[in-house]
Fold this sequence. Notes:
heterodimer; A: mainly alpha; 2 domains; 3-stranded antiparallel beta sheet; 3 strands; globular; B: alpha+beta; Penicillin-binding protein 2a (Domain 2); Beta-lactamase; 7-stranded mixed beta sheet; 22 helices; 23 strands
Amino acid sequence: MRSTGQDQKKAISIWQRLHIDVPLLLGILTLLALGLFLVYSAKGQETAYVYLKARSIGVALLGMFIVAQIPPLAYRKWAVPVFVVGLLMLLSVLLFGHVGKGAQRWLDLGFIKFQPSEIMKLIVPIMIAWFVSQDNLPVRLSTVIQAFILVLLPTLLIAKQPDLGTSLLIASSGIFVIFLAGASWKLISVCIALTSAFIPILWMFLMKPYQKQRVLTFLNPEQDPLGSGYHIIQSKIAIGSGGIEGKGWLQGTQSQLEFLPERHTDFIFSVFSEEFGLVGVTALLAVYLFVVMRGLWIAVNAQQAFTKLLAGSLTLTFFVYVFVNIGMVSGLLPVVGVPLPLVSFGGTSMVTLLLGFGILMAISTHRRFHA
Amino acid sequence: MPPRRNVIRNQSAEANLFARRTFITFCGVVVILLLLLGNIYSLQVESFEKYKTRSNSNRIKLVAVAPNRGLIFDRNGVLLADNKPVYSLEVIAEDVDDIKASIAQVSSLLDISPERQERFFKNMKSNRRFKPVELHSRLSDQQVALFSVNQHKFPGIFVNARLKRYYPFSDLTTHTLGYVARINRKDANKLEQEGKSDNYAATYAIGRLGIERYYEDVLHGFIGHQEVEINNQGRVIRTLNYTPPIPGKDLTLSLDIELQMIAKRALSGKRGAIVAMDPRSGEILAMYSNPSYDGNLFVHGISSKNYKKLLNSSDLPLINRSVQGYPPASTVKPFLALTGLEEKVITPSTKIYDPGWYQLDGLPNKYRDWKPWGHGMVDLTTAIEQSCNIYFYDLAFKLGITKISTMMEKFGFGDYTGVDIHEESRAIMPSVAWKRERYKKSWYTGETLSVGIGQSYWTVTPLQLAQALTTLVNHGERKIPHLLKASSELIIESNGNAYHQVTPIVYEPRAPLEINDEKNWDVVLKAMHNTVQKPSATAYKPFKGTKYDASGKTGSAQVARIKQDEKYDAESTSENKRDNAMFIAFAPYNNPEIVVSVAIENVEKGGGATNAAPVARQIMDQYFGNRDIKAEIKTAKVQTKASINNTKQTRETD
């Protein structure tokens, strides 16, 4: 045993001591670097935005590194109190929150302004993973129902802000945990059926007019080409006119001449598609697939149900970003405010994502010490 | 939430379950990625052409570029119509948030009159919201500077530099040259109907009068296009392609600006018109109507105050008198004499007795001569020299109205001369048919007598007189009076060489006026020569001492009807009822080079001989070399030369 331990110790590389998962880091850095180049192009070749993005990348990478040092089991201990605090913050956002862009998302604590909904993207999977992993897997029906309620609480609070994109991401992070925990297929079928039945109710009673408008626009953007359909039409023109090889970096007319709205944030994928074409899109999707595969590999190789579920959920939520963002800018999904992960300009979501990757790295590198 | 700690976990079963579920989700991830990729493929490959086109139509716009209007020169190359850069303040209503407040603010900054603001709002209403509308048409340098500093406060308001028409001789050329004015709705509709709208897309002004109007199509040129890349705000980022406009052709007129100046000076303080023409070609050397006005006022959009002043002036400056009808009075006597000879009702030696009046058999009315005691025995030549009315009453009576009007129509009276301006009047050559149509009445013989001395319904334009005289001095060879001598255009060869190609305008000759006895021309022309050269004749005094051999005929037209036995006295007659003075002349007698026709309204004293003939002499003196105002013209030439150079420069930089 001793010799094995020594061998093991020898096998532990410098990266593992730093709690860095190298393949994951490479994938992340590729995407972040691409983001810098695209923001430069999308923002009329202004370096100011590139510096801003580089700064938040630095902060976020530091955060990721710090989080990676924390043994993952520590989260299990703190899951419940942190979740409760998170819910309280969401409530206070609704009551005293700072209004920005027509939605209450920010909480101003005097010294810092932040979005509690962003933190919930991490807290919810931790909480649900903790909750369902207390029992043997596969999960039982009663646990599933309770877990659903736990997911629904923050989801509804965030949807009320209103922030459809974030609530969607949070709901899916919880649902992924439940699915990976082995919820029965029968149950899943019932849930799908119930959700379908819920859609008309959602439409008639719960959605705000602007959200309905987004859906209508999504269904027929050409109906109002200069109004609500403008974003999606211009985005599709940008993507389509890119062709196979693209117009070249800094050469996209849709983005350089500012026909494309929200170029550096939600619609950055359109800038990329216009300038790099189908070749670039395929390569980008391959990088995302690589990151997802590495995340799932970490999940499968994690040694406890809690860490498996948490790693799986974080990875799949990352993929939901990719799916929803690309789906919406290319006209497959209605426009909900979800950035292209790690590439879009915008510090908050990037910090959350990298903190999530920090947790993944912790799960990947800490397992040998608590076996 | 029951806490279930210390459960015995089946680790490998859990791991298996998790691995299975992970694999399923992984498959889902791959499927979704393929779905996304498939969708991108359909956009970028299958619909590529469609989106490429839409992307290009987003960013590429065609901007129309107005051609430079052709310049107009006089026969000696003096510039008469120039294009000068001016700065205007323009507003695109669509881009201004609070139009009323912005206009008020910018108006107080640049001291823009309420009248201009009012006009702007009126124009704004009749224009599309995204089209620029002028608030001020001619900013001073100071105003341009002041606005430029404050431009950021006025989005949607900007200074535009464009070439605008400028007439350096102002009122001297207005009636003939005409002017350009802003394209109004009526013009726009007309252009639309004629299918010219596209060519005028960038054009601001259109020829409204005179040469500018008549040769609009030649002067205008052809529109150019600039293909530009624009951003989402419509701001031009760069030029992709440029098709330059083809400038309008430059025109050289037959006018001699020096003669024109003399004409203006000779008519100063009078209402009237002068036409001077070269009978060998029909080229109009001078055509001036007094009083005139500054055509430049209209180029920049005349203020309603100025326009009302012109419109309501009792001197009617807006009318081009050279192509308006006047009673010709005795100036038509040579033509009537020719008719009499041709119709053989008289011979050169036919004499009649003039007691000072003429009476038709059985009628009480007495037709008077201008000389109360009469001329005694007169033959044809004397009748013309002395302008004996009685002789021509008798002649007219012998001819009858139909023979008169038929012959006079051959001289071009009562019809358009075909001069190249549109403002021409046909005037009136009365006839039996004309009177029946006009008044539904039959013709009276008494009216024939009045026609015999160029009165009654008969009116002629000074231009018609010059044209008829041309036919007379040419022994029947008719010329079309015209102003355009040549056009020139800039030709750019493929090797880059550029030169002006001058195309002289050729006027097809009209069928000559043929008469039975060629000698009759000289009888009449000789009588006109005597009229000027014989000391006893009517026009001797005004032409005394000329170095050239002039001929002519005077005329004094009654404007007010004078009752029987009433004596006309100019001083006791109100100004607008006083006689008009007329004069026609040509020189030299052998091989005439110039014909002149003069009409002066409501003269204070005397008739054609004392008022109109001296005016014609000044023109001829100038023409034949008495250039006493050479110095004055020289300075004017220097000024116009400077502006020609400017124009050349702006054209080269275009």
